[in-house]
Design goal:
Layout: H1 2-13, H2 18-30, E1 47-49, E2 52-54, E3 58-60, H3 71-74, E4 81-87, E5 100-103, E6 108-111, H4 120-128, E7 136-140, H5 149-160, E8 166-170, H6 185-201, E9 207-212, H7 218-231, E10 235-238, E11 258-261, H8 265-279, E12 285-288, H9 294-303, E13 307-310, H10 312-317, H11 321-335
Parallel strand pairs: 3-4, 3-13, 4-7, 7-8, 8-9, 9-10, 10-12, 12-13
Antiparallel strand pairs: 1-2, 5-6, 6-11
């Protein structure tokens, strides 16, 4: 019955406003109405990411479960790890609606949410109640009206960090004014120093990642790589959404906000490959942007990613996509003679440089 509901549900969801449909998908997960495969793993898929043991390298990107409402079902949805948030110190409503748009002909989406969330205290209570097992991360954000955005990231980590396995510093959302300015080398070094100080103060420090934008010049990417390596963070998430609108066919292409989905795949993978070359294996990279198939997950891994994340592709393929991608990835690794996914990381990086 659940599978019938899922098959019928996706077309019906697309008749609704995208944000309302998204809210209903969270409610359906919480109510147990979605078929979940449980952990998907194999000897080839099981891997380590910044010291965290993953059943497979296919993760859920931040933004799907902003308020950490569906942790338990999402950990059973075939993902190797999940990331909730972004969380900000104080609750905020985000930007005015409508702020989420489907670009169906492009298999893409544009959002300008603006870090809408219920605040770090509410989210911390939920992550504290997480089920045992599974790998859970929190995306750290800053309040729109904050006078010290750098301090906001450290504050969220201090409150939520005791209950998660990793945290991602999100300086790359295009929907909070001046946030991307924090990607500059001096600002980034200061911000990361504050976050790492807060992390060291936790009773059990977590793996800290930095999520960057795809809209960067080579010199900016070099600066980010240098700052990331020198800061002592655990890794980089490449990338967030793009401001580019090249080659889009959808009527909503001109909407303001960050573009995600298939049009982002090439751009984000090129940034990933550059970071992989610059860091020379010193930092693991999570590849995000346009992952919608086993082949695309495999391409990012071969370009230098130790793991991948997805979100927008589920809008068009359903929550079951994660498990399908993991199983397909296993077959591709076997086809090419890899005993483990870690052996494939960066093997075709040159093709993306």
């Amino acid at each position: 019955m659940k599978r019938v509901l899922q098959k019928m549900g996706l077309p019906l969801m697309h008749l609704l406003d995208p944000e309302r449909a998204h809210g209903l998908s969270i409610k359906a997960l919480k109510a147990g109405l979605v078929p979940l495969p449980g952990p998907v793993t194999s000897d080839r898929l099981a891997t380590s990411l910044a010291g965290m043991a993953l059943p497979n390298p296919v993760g859920l990107a931040a933004g799907f479960d902003k308020n950490a409402e569906a942790i338990a079902p999402l950990l059973q949805a075939g993902f190797g790890f999940i990331e909730v948030g972004a969380a900000t110190p104080r609750a905020q409503t985000g930007n005015a609606k409508p702020r989420l748009f489907r670009l169906t002909p492009d298999a893409a989406a544009i959002n300008r949410f603006g870090f809408n969330n219920q605040g770090m205290d509410v989210i911390a209570a939920r992550v504290a109640d997480r089920p045992a097992g599974g790998v859970l991360g929190i995306n750290l954000g800053a309040n729109k009206d904050s006078t010290d955005k750098s301090k906001d990231f450290a504050s969220v980590l201090t409150v939520c960090g005791p209950y998660v396995d990793f945290a991602t510093v999100n300086v790359s959302s295009p929907n909070t004014e001046k946030l991307r300015d924090l990607q500059g080398k001096a600002a980034l070094e200061g911000l990361l120093a504050g976050v790492m100080e807060a992390n060291a103060a936790l009773s059990k420090p977590v793996a800290v990642f930095l999520k960057i934008a795809p809209d960067l010049e080579p010199a900016e990417i070099r600066d980010i790589a240098d700052a990331a390596v020198s800061s002592g963070i655990a890794g980089i998430v490449a990338t967030n959404t793009t401001l580019s609108r090249d080659g889009l066919a959808s009527a909503n292409a001109a909407e303001v906000g960050g573009l995600s989905g298939q049009p982002l795949f090439d751009k984000s993978t090129r940034v990933l490959a550059q970071l992989s070359e610059l860091t020379q294996g010193k930092l693991p990279i999570i590849g995000v942007g346009g992952v919608g198939s086993p082949e695309q997950a495999y391409a990012k891994i071969c370009a230098g990613a130790s793991a991948v994340q997805l979100y927008t592709a589920m809008v068009y393929n359903g929550i079951g996509l994660a498990g399908k991608i993991a199983l397909g990835l296993d077959e591709l690794l076997a086809r090419d003679g890899f005993d483990n996914v870690a052996d494939a990381v960066g093997t075709k990086r040159e093709a993306w440089l």
